[in-house]
Specification:
alpha/beta; Rossmann fold; UDP-galactose 4-epimerase, domain 1; six-stranded parallel beta sheet; three-stranded parallel beta sheet; 12 helices; 44% helix; globular
Length: 317
């Protein structure tokens, strides 16, 4: 990678990934792509170039690629799971029609493409514990359907046209930088905000619901490391399971209470989010990522909790 376009640069992943890439590629151009109404602000706007980049506008994307000599596109434009259930047609338009536009630009101009998949690409008939890299994927959410299609389209463009497509199946991502944006796993971010503010937390996910989670620094490292991996080692490409930790609400509550003994939580289960969560894996087998490009996370639940609280206290108090 030398010059990179990040589509969706002001979102939960994109804002942090763009800044990481700018530090990682100090002599290259890392362009923050955004849509009108979601312009970069602060250090994101000041630290590098930005351009309007509607994922569905191939001509616009092609012009950016030419202007900055882009060789790699990170396509992060998406509606998250709970939002996608409320707006399924818009989710399809952004996540599939948008992906096709990106892949066509990449095919014409020789770019590599990273379009993340998710644990949402699995469904209730998928093995839930130690979910294999290659297994049945029959999701029942629009978010999950688009992620399966993303994997298949990305592989198609690699095998048919030689486009260098790569991706990971992100678990739930936890970060202190950006507020959640409507995902099923967002409770695992919101609970830390409540703890640091001294507020009671109302949990929308039922006790005993395990889901794979990951701290954002590990997710960003994985997204960068995969795009720089030796292509001759890659067997799967779209899309790699990557894992870090798996917990339910009671476990994260217990970890927070080690730091805030008086922290209170009660349950008001959201049936939409709970149904989605029930269809997702409890834990994924990421041995293929470890073998094919040396994936290895750095954070577990305890070390993530320490870091989240330190940073949220600096941010909120």
């Amino acid at each position: 990678m030398k010059n990179v376009l990040v589509i969706g640069s002001t979102g939960q992943i994109g804002s942090e990934l763009t800044m990481n890439l700018r530090r990682h590629l100090p002599t290259g151009a890392v362009v923050a792509g955004y849509v009108s109404g979601a312009e970069p602000k602060g250090v994101l706007a000041e630290s590098g170039p930005s351009e309007i980049a509607d994922v569905r506008d191939a001509a616009c994307l092609g012009a950016i690629v030419d202007k900055y000599k882009i060789d790699t596109i990170y396509n992060l434009a998406a509606l998250l799971s709970a939002v996608a259930e409320k707006k399924p047609l818009l989710a399809w338009d952004i996540q599939i029609n948008g992906l096709l536009a990106v892949l066509e630009v990449a095919r014409e101009k020789g770019c590599a493409v990273f379009t993340p998949s998710s644990i949402g690409s699995f469904g209730p008939s998928t093995p839930h514990v130690g979910t294999p890299q290659d297994t049945i994927q029959r999701p029942r959410s629009m978010y999950g359907v688009t992620k399966v299609a993303t994997e298949l389209l990305s592989d198609y463009y690699f095998h048919k046209y030689g486009v260098d497509t790569r991706s990971v199946r992100f678990p739930g991502l936890i970060s202190y930088v950006q507020l959640p944006g409507g995902g099923t796993t967002d409770y695992a971010v919101e609970i830390y905000y409540a703890a640091v503010k001294g507020e009671e937390f109302v949990c929308p996910i039922a006790a005993g619901t395990f889901m794979d989670m990951m701290y954002m620094p590990d997710a960003l490292k994985g997204a960068i490391d995969l795009m720089e991996a030796d292509p001759s080692r890659l067997v799967h490409r779209n899309s790699f399971n990557i894992a870090s930790m798996s917990f339910d609400p009671e476990m994260i509550l217990a970890e927070i209470r080690k730091r805030y003994p008086d922290f209170r939580m009660r349950y008001e289960v959201d049936p939409v989010r709970q149904a989605i969560a029930n269809s997702w894996p409890d834990s994924m087998d990421d041995s293929c990522a470890r073998e094919e490009w040396d994936w290895k996370p750095s954070y577990d639940l305890s070390s993530m909790t320490d870091d989240m609280i330190i940073n949220l206290k600096a941010k909120l108090l």
